[in-house]
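Figure caption, in words: inputs first, then the predicted bound structure.
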Amino acid sequence: MKKVLVVEDETTIRNLYKEELIDEGYEVITAADGVEGYELFKKEQPDLITIDLKMPNMNGIELLDKIRREDKIIPIIIYSAYGEFTQNFSTWAADEYLVKSSDLSEFKAKVKELIFGKQH
Ligand SMILES: [Mg+2]
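Bound structure (magnesium ion present):
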């Protein structure tokens, strides 16, 4: 079973993503900030990571940078309420930058595509 790490500081949103991704057939582990996210990245070796940008302790850009220094391959999705950081080169190290929406279908499709490749 493919393992997804969700790093998101808002509990309600974090749990929502978790439920939705479990329904899609993934094992899901969650972290509430960048510090915890980094620890789980090291310990759990997930197949994909989704990262929120605005979080306490260590924000999403710092976390992305820290992970990419060690792992250039693992698929990473930035999933943020704010589109403004698409212009920030720090976020270009992510495979995908999605703006949060109440409709999670695009999010779930990207997770699938990045783990399994494009479906033909
Ligand atoms: Mg946040």
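The first strand starts at residue 3 and ends at 7.
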